[in-house]
Write a structure and sequence with these properties.
The structure is a single chain. This protein has 149 residues and is α+β, with helices and mostly antiparallel strands. The strands form 2 sheets. A 3-stranded antiparallel sheet has the order 1-2-5, with no helix packed on it. A two-stranded antiparallel sheet has the order 3-4. The two termini are 19 Å apart. It has 3 helices and 5 strands, in the order E-E-H-E-E-E-H-H. It has one domain: Nucleoside Triphosphate Pyrophosphohydrolase (Alpha-Beta Complex), CATH 3.90.79.
Length: 149
């Protein structure tokens, strides 16, 4: 989710709950989550941003998908293939960080990160790539109009 402030574009980033291990840097990530029954992926993106950051946004369009495999660290240790879709959203209203108390089990803090710095600061490769795609989109679309479907 992007917002223009002080002549720059900023992206809302979260620090997932749980403390980093000693010697490890803070993890900054993009808001995301599971699609609820009856929900479309764009609706999920808007809901997750609202729940994890405290602000309302409007949908601009889809940025892309990240595909990866991880091994569950709980229960059966099964390998899981996952696809995460990312959407370009624009800030509409609200105050960053004003999230429900029950969300504090998922999110320890929220901050605005300069979009120019996000490809370097975000913890996960795929999310850094999505930030770079957002920068590319803004370079091509100075007026920040909705993407063609």
């Amino acid at each position: 989710m992007l917002r223009q402030m002080r002549g720059r574009w900023w992206v809302a980033a979260i620090e997932p709950a749980g403390r980093p291990s000693p010697g490890k840097k803070t993890v900054l990530a993009l808001p995301k989550g599971l699609v609820d029954p009856g929900e479309t992926p764009p609706q999920t993106a808007l809901r997750e941003v609202r729940e994890e950051t405290g602000v309302e946004a409007t949908l601009v369009g889809k940025l892309g998908d990240i595909k990866y495999v991880y091994t569950r660290s709980w229960a059966d240790g099964e390998r899981v293939f996952k696809v995460v879709s990312f959407y370009l959203l624009r800030y509409q209203s609200g105050k960053l960080g004003e999230i429900a108390p029950e969300m504090r089990v998922e999110v320890s803090r929220v901050e605005w990160v300069p979009l120019d710095d996000a490809p370097r600061l975000l913890a996960y490769k795929g999310e850094r790539e999505m930030a770079a795609k957002a920068l590319e989109y803004l370079a091509r679309n100075r007026e920040f109009k909705p993407m063609n479907k």
